[in-house]
Amino acid sequence: MIKMFSDEWFKRLMENINTNEKYSRYASDWEGDIIIEVKGDNNSSYVRAGLTKIIQLKLYHGKCLDIKTLSGLPQLKNAYLLKADATTWERVLTGKADIITAILSGKVSVTGETVKLFRYVNAARELVRSAQTINLLERD
User: Fold this and answer.
1) Of 17, 51, 82, 96, which has the fewest beta carbons less than 10 angstroms from its beta carbon?
2) Tally of structural domains, the chain
């Protein structure tokens, strides 16, 4: 099993995004980065309380060009920031919670042009599915 938020996990996520035909179709005209902030908490198995991980997904026209861990928050020009505690992200990325429901309920906060973001609901769900399949493939 690959540890969530590890370098190997990010590498597999990028591969999964770039081979996800539905994501490619739904995000064919998407331009912009997604910045994910994961705040550690006492219930997390992957990011302990007091730590924060910031991940940047460089997305362009249905492909992921790069995924990297950042040391701080960048300028959000043409980017979206999604913030939540680690347990919420773990629930979303393992299929126990829906990303759109988490956003609408306030469990995941979004900074950026949310109206535009919601035009890409199907693409967002496919990004999450790309993450959800990482450890499923390991069990086969």
Assistant:
1) 96
2) 1
